[in-house]
Write a structure and sequence with these properties.
Layout lengths: L6 E2 L11 E5 L5 E5 L2 E7 L2 H13 L8
Antiparallel strand pairs: 1-2, 2-3, 3-4
């Protein structure tokens, strides 16, 4: 795997270490990791990541029991 350039959300505060970071490889495959555990990387597809982000934005994961 080529060297990935990791980015944190603009919502991450200055020194926060509990942040999700995202990188895309040259083929366009998204990779996710938690900043406090950078050696564990989740690879997904662009379609699956878009679906996850849409679900998060609706707040559906914020409601227990749904």
């Amino acid at each position: 795997m080529s060297r990935l350039i990791w980015r944190k959300s603009s919502f991450s505060e200055g020194g926060a270490v509990n942040c999700v970071e995202v990188a895309t490889d040259p083929e366009g495959t998204p990779h996710l990791r938690e900043s406090d555990d950078p050696h564990t990387v989740i690879t997904t597809t662009p379609t699956a990541l878009r679906a996850l982000l849409r679900t998060i934005k609706t707040g559906a994961l914020d409601r227990p029991g749904h």
